[in-house]
Amino acid sequence: MKHQIIYKNKDRYSSFPLLKQLDDRILIGFFTAPVPDHMGLFKWNVLVSFDEGITWGFAGIHDYEDWDWPANSPRERSDMFTCSLGKSKIATGSYGFKARQISTSTSSASGPLTDKSQITKSTSLFHRWSPDNWQETIYQRFYEVPGIDIIVTFPRFFQDKSGDFSHPHDLILIPAYALISEYENFSRCFVWRSEDRGKTFRLWNMFPGEIDGNEMAFIKTEKGILVHIRSDNHPYLMESWSYDYGLTWSYPTHVYSETVGNIIGGPPHLLRLKDNRILCSYGYRRQPMGIRAIISEDEGETWQAPIILRDDAGYASSLHKEKWLWSKFRFNRPNPAMDCGYPVSIQLEDDSILTAYYITCEDRITGIEATKWKV
Known about the structure:
The protein has a single domain, classed as Neuraminidase, CATH 2.120.10.10. 3% of the residues lie in helices and 42% in strands.
């Protein structure tokens, strides 16, 4: 097991990496900011490696100051941003969903103004939003979702190209979660679902009722689609199953290991390994904090004991003294010592696994690091 610093700067807070494995290179994207930034307000960086992650070089820096489109929250603005890098493309947030508040005026006899959420998406997977295309065009569709303040997508999408379902599908599932109110600590799990390779989407409420969950990851198994789910209101990683291509989902239960019991951690990332096992990597925000992974050899039915990749986190960034960001946007401020996690994994040509994540160690610099390891 070998750890590697990909990007670390004492004057920058770096977080939330994404990995993209292409034919001839690996791309990694992440945020950097002069203050602790969980909303994607500042700069998005892309690094590239042509040697299986041994060395990395800068491929581009994107500044949001030139992209001042309407959005309900900074996170929303982050999620709708995508970019292209030459012939190699990387989605830096989601497929381009965004929402804005609209007011529908009614007569005094009918009642007061009614606020609704309006969500628009790009039908092009790598279309870049700009103020010029905010109005409805061939690239956009509009949705109205009552009773929801904000919908946030999470870049752990599922796309089935195998065609081995019982009937043909070009299925895409994009995990999302809805904040019922920006000022309440409760969210619900949604999925954007497409059967025509992204030409059209429908938004599905996965668990009607009081199921609290947010960031999710999907994977196809022999019997259906498995999703792992994080919740902010309890520490356990949850799972649910769909046997009808993401139309309905089983009631969430805890991810369980016979060795240690219920798995604590999140958010998850799911990866099918070359030997057909399933890997789930996740952050662990209890002492000793760090990065962990679990493996299933039976299509997600049971999980082995956690593998500890890192256990040296649990420190607050030295930049946490800057509090203006949180007070300005009135978001709940997390415990600054919990700044680690959001891993994403790929498998390399030599069958080793590269897991990238953000972490704050004893030096109190929040940076992007990776671990190369084998199972």
